């Protein structure tokens, strides 16, 4: 059994050690953490982004055996001042369209605000570039990140 810290709890997983974290989150855990999305499964789309020790990673690319002593945070456990400010701004800026990529966008934006109090547009574009949004919500994502940063650090 592989033990992994997820959203502040240690959970034992019976999957094979090389199982990608994404499948363990979505299929093994009870309750299933389906907020982390499967897009491509090959490290291209970014829909499966989670935080590992506060850094965004693609959950489809990391086997659970590589997570010993790591802290994994998924959209379900994202509840810091930065995350709350972003969720509020996301609603106020009406960011979401179909919603499929948005868990990953919020996870990546939260990690960005951990490092930058007032990220510039170029910082935002760099931080978010690995997560595809077929609905084209990037202009609203950018606006919401600026708004959240301003609310945290007026
Ligand atoms: S599902 Fe992981 S990068 Fe696309
Ligand atoms: S909101 Fe539809 S893919 Fe991003």
What does this structure look like?
- This protein has five helices and five strands.
- It has helices spanning 21-28, 81-92, 102-115, 121-128, 138-152; strands at 2-6, 9-13, 49-52, 55-58, 71-73.
- Strands 2-1-5-3-4 form a five-stranded mixed sheet, with helices on both faces.
- Strand 1 (2-6) and strand 2 form a beta hairpin.
- It is globular, with a radius of gyration of 15 Å.
- The structure holds FE2/S2 (inorganic) cluster (2 copies).
- Residues 38-41, 43-48, 58, 60 line the site of one FE2/S2 (inorganic) cluster (FES).
- This is (2Fe-2S)-binding protein.
- It comes from Paraburkholderia ferrariae.
Please specify the SSE layout and strand pairing.
Elements: E1 2-6, E2 9-13, H1 21-28, E3 49-52, E4 55-58, E5 71-73, H2 81-92, H3 102-115, H4 121-128, H5 138-152
Parallel strand pairs: 1-5
Antiparallel strand pairs: 1-2, 3-4, 3-5
The structure holds FE2/S2 (inorganic) cluster (2 copies).
Task: Please describe the structure with a list of short key phrases separated by commas or semicolons.
154 residues; alpha+beta; Ubiquitin-like (UB roll); DNA polymerase, domain 1; five-stranded mixed β-sheet; 5 strands; globular; binds FE2/S2 (inorganic) cluster
